[in-house]
Write a structure and sequence with these properties.
The complex is a heterodimer.
Chain A (H helix, E strand, L loop, with lengths): L1 H11 L4 E5 L6 E4 L4 H10 L7 E9 L8 E8 L6 E8 L5 E3 L9 H11 L2 E3 L39
Parallel strand pairs in A: 2-5, 6-7
Antiparallel strand pairs in A: 1-2, 3-4, 4-5
Chain B lengths: L17 E5 L11 E7 L2 E8 L7 H5 L8 H5 L6 H16 L5 H29 L3 H22 L8 E2 L2 E2 L7 H23 L3 H7 L7 H6 L4 H5 L7 H4 L20 H25 L17 H6 L1 H12 L7 E9 L2 E9 L7 E5 L1 H7 L1 H5 L7 H8 L3 H4 L2
Antiparallel strand pairs in B: 1-2, 2-3, 4-5, 6-7, 7-8
The chains are: A alpha/beta, B mainly alpha.
């Protein structure tokens, strides 16, 4: 059943799917970002696939370990077909942007804002592309591997300190 | 003739929409969350939910500690049902390593996770009732929760942040007197829950505030990524325990309660029925359980017994290696999902083959619930924010990482 998902995706978007694997039983497909919205819409609307629950969206930072640096990871689930899939989109540090999946599933709204806030990947076309955890004016993206864990950025100017 | 002293624009009363800030520190806002509400009279026109006031950097902290040291952090995600988080995290790491806990361990994990779920629902229902003036129901719920926490304390040693699970096992087996103690607690909790039913189910004030307020369709709820009791109250029967049974959930006979309208009252009923179903699952666990080992006999995962640590050089070294270097998890990535109190709790782990997680991402159910919360509030009265927000059961700890 689950093999079906990857096969069907590959048959429809042969030029978009870079590679697939099912390690630890999790079906995974690496896809290109060019037609991402079209691909996600297909996953949602296709009667055989019917992915109707946006589960999770996050980013993995492979700083100095892999090129390109970022992987945007989508997890989807279908409550009718009871299958799952993981999609990964590789993006470069200099060009860290993917099209927003908000038009397909509003349920990725905050996940995308969080990914932008903490990893600095832009989601083009997101209706409210602002930080969600950190305040406006916060410098950097704290979950990037090159952001030191003990770095402090107080919101207020401390007494005797020059801003 | 009197003259007009104050002239409003258009000769009418001023009726511009009013902006109101609710939270982040507000008696009706559980945890720290802020809502910017645009009001037309008493009707909520638009709501913007803001989180981030309790952001503690869960993921960043996890990346700098060993796999086992993440356990106390998971307690603090959903602090009302910490054992569900413990179990979820342990299952994720075990899936990544490619081992499965022993049968007895899984039974105990299910018992503890289900009792945690009962606590979660009791807190939610009790707090919602209190906010509507039903203080008695709240006290009953908290008394029942207290009984369960006291029982949990005899098992785990802590009331609230248990850190009971270990990768590949548990801190300890159940105490010898667990069964008689549980029977006493179960009887008490069941009678308190029955009292709550009697107090609330047909209470005129409660019904007026809960029925047909904050409703949503199943389709819309799925689009927002809702899971758990809030999704099930809309009529969709997605429950991870049934849809993809993990651990031993396929051995139990239990039902998934669903609502029809997805309003506050349905959410209340779903949660109350889930308490009953959790009791059923625990009962079946206790019947099916057999004596046996709780921990895997795997020196790579679990600490050696203390007499070995202090009595032999091999034991000392093994202990030292696990504490200092951490468990060695093979490189890879895994998404593991369990049903927590509020819905699907997922852990997405990435390992590079070191003793520390490269990435430890938690998919908290509340995060999705909060991003779609405004749809439950808009179009209703401002006073309806309180019961609706209460019935969604937002937990700041897991929402704000």
């Amino acid at each position: 059943m689950s093999k079906n998902v990857l096969e069907r995706l590959q048959a429809r978007f042969a030029d978009q799917v870079e590679e697939t694997h099912s390690n630890q039983g999790d079906d995974t497909a690496y896809v290109k970002r060019d037609k991402l919205v079209e691909l996600l819409t297909f996953l949602r609307d296709d009667a055989e696939l019917a992915f109707n629950l946006p589960v999770d969206l996050t980013v993995v930072d492979w700083y100095q370990k892999r090129e390109p640096r970022f992987e945007v990871v989508y997890h989807l689930y279908s409550t009718t077909k009871k299958h799952r899939v993981r999609l990964k989109v590789r993006v470069d540090e200099d060009d860290a942007r993917v099209p927003s999946s908000f038009p397909v599933w509003p349920g990725f709204d905050w996940f995308e804002r969080e990914a932008w806030d903490l990893y600095g990947v832009r989601f083009e076309g997101h209706p409210n592309h602002t930080r969600i955890m950190m305040w406006e004016g916060f410098e950097g993206h704290p979950l990037r591997k090159d952001y030191p864990i003990n770095k402090r950025q107080p919101l207020t100017t401390l007494l005797g300190e020059q801003k | 003739m009197s003259e007009i002293l104050i002239e409003t624009e258009g000769g009418d009363l001023d009726s511009a929409p009013m902006n109101l800030q609710m939270g982040p520190s507000h008696p009706a806002m559980h945890g720290t969350i802020k809502m910017r509400v645009k009001l037309d009279g008493e009707i909520v026109q638009k709501t913007e939910v803001e989180v981030g006031y309790l952001h503690r950097g869960f993921e960043k902290s996890c990346e700098s500690v060993t796999w086992s040291q993440v356990m106390p952090y998971t307690d603090r995600l959903n602090y009302v049902s910490p054992l569900c988080n413990n179990v979820g995290y342990c299952m994720a790491v075990e899936k990544l390593i490619g081992v499965r806990a022993t049968e007895r361990c899984e039974y105990i994990r299910i018992i503890m996770a289900e009792s945690s779920r009962i606590c979660d629902h009791l807190t939610c229902v009790g707090a919602s009732a209190m906010e509507l003036g039903g203080f008695t129901a709240f006290l009953y719920a908290i008394e029942a929760r207290e009984e369960l926490w006291r029982l949990t304390e005899t098992v785990t040693g802590a009331r609230l942040t248990h850190s009971y699970c270990r990768i590949g096992g548990l801190k300890d087996d159940l105490p010898v007197d667990f069964l008689p103690n549980y029977r006493v607690v179960e009887k008490k909790v069941r009678s308190l829950v029955a009292d709550m039913h009697a107090l609330l189910d047909r209470n005129r004030i409660f019904l007026d505030r809960m029925k047909d307020v904050g409703s949503m369709t199943a389709e819309r709820a799925l689009q927002w990524g809702f899971t758990g009791p809030v999704l099930r109250s809309t009529g969709s029967d997605y429950d991870v325990r049934k849809a993809s049974p993990y651990m031993l959930y396929d051995r139990f006979d239990f039902e998934v309660p669903v609502g029809t309208k997805g309003d506050n009252y349905d959410r209340y009923l779903v949660r109350m029925e889930e308490i009953e179903q959790s009791f059923r699952i625990i009962d079946q666990c206790l019947k099916q359980m057999k004596p046996g080992p709780v921990n895997l006999e795997d020196g790579r995962l679990l600490l050696p017994p203390k007499d070995e640590v202090y009595g032999s050089i091999e034991g000392t070294i093994a202990h030292f290696k696990i504490i200092m270097d951490g468990i060695q998890v093979p490189p890879g990535e895994v998404y593991s999902y369990t049903e927590a109190g509020n819905g699907e709790l997922g852990f997405y782990l990435v390992s590079t083959g070191e003793g520390r997680p490269y990435k430890c991402r938690v998919r908290p159910p509340c995060w999705s619930l909060m991003q779609g919360l405004h749809e439950l509030l808009e179009g209703y009265q401002i006073a309806d924010i309180v019961p609706t927000f209460g019935s969604v059961n937002m937990i700041g700890g897991e929402c704000d990482r």
